[in-house]
Design brief:
VOC family protein, VOC_core, single chain, 130 residues, Glyas_Bleomycin-R_OHBP_Dase, 2 helices, Glyas_Fos-R_dOase_dom
Length: 130
């Protein structure tokens, strides 16, 4: 379980806006923001209202991709994240599908965010009735 995750970003405000837009189907929104001499530090929260994803300015230049998986409440939300990521111009690594090698009912989409991180929306469950 992730308590929170901090990402160093080339543009912390743009990164936070990207996550808000792409993960809106999962209820992600900006909750906190404070300014530093190098730019804003922004806390994003899901439906529970806890800031668990933070974007902040780079401490120093460099490539620091990470893998970030966010829980989606349904397969439809994974599909909506995929559509929003594609609309936002994100590089799609893997379109939404089941990943039985992880476990039965694992349904996810993978894409790159604005800073090259490998981001995933995942729903743990079985196919929803039509």
């Amino acid at each position: 379980m992730i308590d929170h995750l901090g990402l160093q970003c080339a543009d912390a405000a743009a990164a936070a806006a990207f996550y808000e837009r792409v993960f809106a189907p999962c209820g992600v929104r900006e909750l906190m923001r404070y300014d530093t001499p190098h730019g804003p530090v922004i806390g994003l929260a899901g439906p529970d209202g806890m800031p668990q994803l933070w974007t902040s300015p780079l401490e120093e230049p460099g490539n620091r991709p990470v893998h970030l998986a966010l829980t989606a409440p349904s397969r439809n939300a994974v599909d909506a994240v995929f559509a929003a990521a594609r609309e936002a111009g994100a590089e799609i690594l893997h379109e939404p599908r089941e990943w039985p090698e992880y476990h039965p009912g694992y349904y996810g989409v993978f894409f790159r965010d604005l800073d090259g991180n490998n981001v995933e929306a995942v729903h743990h469950g079985f196919p929803e009735p039509a």
